């Protein structure tokens, strides 16, 4: 049995928030970043500077001997870029929640997925140690290498196949994107009344942190949970001039009522 | 001008989570709880024991000389109970987000609202210091007394009228009840696939805590925000067997697309 060598150096394909967060995490544990590739040369060079390496917008300039080529770009471009990375011997892995492992299969020996389950933005840098990383690969030795790399930067590393990852990504969209939309709607409602949105922050944080001890189905409260038709009617009256929001309100309210009262 | 005396003792009407949380907060600052009233005698006595006072299910047993009668019961019963509290000279205040000040107006000289903007459950005890308390009253001296009492237990006390409070309550339903429903839906989707829901907790917490520094409209990310029709189509296929959830997914997705792309 061959000894599995660790991933000691990486080429990063992409220069966005995920590329930056992972790049910094890797340099922190002493893994060398060989170079950064981006279609936009300035972005490649800027992230390269941050990671003490070169930046390029030319695929043929990417180091041929990297142990790992990590693709951290928009979901919809992963396959297109992967198909151009043909001359390399290292592992190719993408970081996308919605793309299956198979988008990397053309002409590659060793490929995998390295999906950090978190939202990364320029303004907010989550502690990578607390970000679950989901690993998948086309063979055991590649899986083991990616898993070991992930376990050096995060406390939570999990074996997740493509179908599970897709459901996880859908769930992430539901809890992150949709909750954030609800926050946004509430923000607009309050701002109109000159009420400071920050009054809601303790409630929003409590709603989230309650999940550490309570299943969400058990934590459900409110007018719909109580089937309190009078309050629901009052809320509908308040939303008379917001037809779209009223539709959302009633759809979610009816969903809760059906779940708990039918 | 008469000197405004502070509220030094309180009768609590109700024995639920809000009654308990506020009762404990008042005893912590040395305000005496005279008694607890509840329709259910056991509940009244149990909370009375916790607050070192008597418990009763008989309105005529309630102390006639309390400085404050605090009604912390279901929104829909506030007016009914208030109409029975006729023999008392102290301030009458309710703790409901959805009920206007005017439900207390019959035969009362001094009345107000003392609304803590938080979700209280048996299992989770939020730090009351961080809970915003919204005050309203029918005259200035009552307002001042309630405001001073609130400021002894919370760091955030605000002057909110009945219409604003109703919008705030609606917003609280949106960010708390509806977000929690989304968490619940994600929980069910993942559990079916044997994926641990706790993998989502860092993302959920980040989504909430991001609001400390970023407006929700600016924090919006995801397939709908990017108008990524391919991922949205994939998610729809995944939800083929969940017609109700699919409807929620598409309504919220379309709302985001319209907001950012039309």
What can you see in these coordinates?
The structure is a homodimer of 262-residue chains. In chain A, strands 3-2-1-4-5-6-7-8 form an 8-stranded mixed beta sheet. Chain A is of the alpha/beta class and 262 residues long. The N and C termini of chain A lie far apart (59 Å). The mean pLDDT of chain A is 94. Chain A has 10 helices and 8 strands.
Shape of chain A: elongated
Instruction: Name the chain pair with the biggest interface and residue counts per chain.
Output: A-B, 90 and 91 residues
Strand order of the largest sheet of chain A: 3-2-1-4-5-6-7-8
Task: Quote the average pLDDT of chain A.
Answer: 94
Cα gyration radius of chain A (Å): 23 Å
Number of strands of chain A: 8
Low-confidence stretches of chain A: none
What proportion of the residues of chain A is helical, as a percent range? 40-55%
Give the percentage of residues in beta strands of chain A: 5-15%
Number of helices of chain A: 10
Assembly type of the shown chains? homodimer
Tell me the span between the first and last alpha carbons of chain A.
Answer: 59 Å
